[in-house]
Amino acid sequence: QVQVVESGGGLVQAGASLRLSCAASGRTFSSYALGWFRQAPGREREFVAGINWSGSATDYADSVKGRFTISRDNAKNTMYLQMNSLKPEDTAVYYCGATAMRSDRVLARGYNYAYWGQGTQVTVSS
After folding, report:
1. Are strands 10-13 and 120-125 parallel, antiparallel or unpaired?
2. From residue 123, how far is each of 23, 51, 53, 58, 93 by CA, in Å?
3. With contact defined as beta carbons under 8 Å apart, do 86 and 17 qualify?
4. How many other β-carbons are positioned within 10 Å of the β-carbon of residue 25?
5. Taking residues 96-115, what's their average pLDDT?
6. Residues near 1 by Cβ (< 8 Å), separated by ≥ 6?
7. Half-sphere exposure of 44 (CA within 13 A, CB side)
8. Confidence of residue 1 (pLDDT cuts 50, 70, 90)
9. What percentage of the chain carries pLDDT values higher than 90?
10. What is the pLDDT of residue 10?
11. Which residue of 36, 85, 97, 111 is 20 to 30 Å from 19, comparing CA positions?
12. pLDDT digits (tens, 9 = 90+) for 18-74
């Protein structure tokens, strides 16, 4: 069983930055495809960013392109989401998804991911 734990959320003002972390267990972390999703109150969970197993491919939702950067450190079994120029509309609970699927492409659908963390709250005030 893979355990996934997010951290790094908080309350910030518009224009600020945050870095989220996602730590995942498992000896084969380096082969996991990983993704960040978010869910705002009253809205469905949406894709934010994803990275393939090797780190050679990334993808972003249009709403965060140019502001967010996803990365992974396989030596630490950790994925990151650097969020810059935060906006009030970025307010949501952010979830990390992981799958043992060794995919060369970025997985942007929630159903692709077998393991999820409990989420971390990001609140951006105007």
Report:
1. parallel
2. 21, 24, 29, 25, 8
3. yes
4. 13
5. 92
6. none
7. 4
8. confident
9. 90
10. 98
11. 111
12. 999 999 987 788 889 999 999 999 999 999 999 999 999 999 999 999 999 999 999
Place of tokens 């996803």: 70
Give every CB contact of residue 11 below 8 A, 6+ residues apart in sequence.
123, 125
- Cβ-based neighbours of 45, under 8 Å, separated by 6 or more: 37, 38, 39, 95, 110
Return d(Cα 118, Cα 122) in angstroms, integer.
13
Task: Return the closest-CA partner of residue 4 out of 42, 35, 40, 38.
Answer: 35
Q: Which of 80, 61, 73 is nearest to 22 (CA)?
A: 80
Size of the chain, expressed as the number of residues it contains:
126
